[in-house]
Amino acid sequence: MRILFITSSRIGDAVLSTGLLDHLIRTYPQARIVVACGPVAEGLFARMPNRAWTIVLRRDRLRSHWFRMWREVAGRRWDIVVDLRGSAFAWTIRAGRRHVVKGGRNPEHRVRHLGALFGLEPPPLPVAWFNGADRARAAALLPGEGPWIGLGPTANWDRKVWAPEKFVALYRALTAPGAPLEGARAAILGGPGEMERAMAAPVLAALGEKAVDLVGSLALPEVAAVLARCALFVGNDSGLMHLSAATGTPTLGLFGPSHVEQYAPAGRRTAVAVAPGSPGLDSMPGLTVEAALQAAEGLLATKVPA
Q1: How many angstroms separate the Cα of 174 from the Cα of each of 106, 112, 182, 264, 293?
Q2: Is there a single domain that holds both residue 68 and residue 147?
Q3: How far apart are CA 88 and CA 66, in angstroms?
Q4: β-strand 270-274 against 251-255: which pairing, if any?
Q5: 42: Cα separation from own chain's centroid
Q6: For a surface tag, which of 59, 131, 225, 305 has the fewest beta carbons within 10 Å of its beta carbon?
Q7: Is the pTM of this model over 0.70?
Q8: What InterPro entries does this protein map onto (predicted)?
């Protein structure tokens, strides 16, 4: 059985699609699945079961990436084609069944929107795939028996970024004597590139020896393993936030200009702290440390669903 699964270019949206992929893997355990995604999301699927290969869609001005993919897949007949980009591509190749996301803004959460393609209610939650070597790397990077807090002070848009000094204040409140994560150290995570490193730099400087710098230095399966090792992750609306939720780690997402009803972290233990006036473009500065702390403490106090 052959399945072609066309997902997003961005890490966050690609993570949100992994629940649907996991459903297909469990439903058709003998299937061979080809995943098409953007370059930055490629690593999400490196450890995925039943993956035949990954097609990396590198966009160009002439949109020739679609033609390149067509040449790669058109010679086969596909049992199922899933197109989460809402393109016409699924109708240009031979397929038994096609599931294509409709274009336009949908007010539902993205996970629910995707689950509806297969009539799944409740929709399957995102998953994260990593292996024993990734776990070993994470254990070496975050050593010891004490707890770790993952912090994601970066994002792909500066208006979604909470102030560095607020991340530092929240970390200190959560790790103070008598606090829920007393004595915990911080793992600072972010994507590659100078912009993300600049966003994370003030937090790293303020926390000094209490923090480990993991910004832009790990493959995505290693990032997932690091997140799975954390007692809590707090981050801006970003791919890291969605990946953390997919690992099952208690995840607090910080929201300002984003539509929280569509892109809240989806996982077994998640919460959000939403700025007043959200989704206003300049709302993020209104999110207080006190509001984020209350959300984090409430999240940590909740029991894991059975």
Answers
A1: 36, 32, 7, 22, 7
A2: no
A3: 10
A4: parallel
A5: 13
A6: 305
A7: yes
A8: Glyco_trans_9, LPS_LOS_Heptosyltrfase
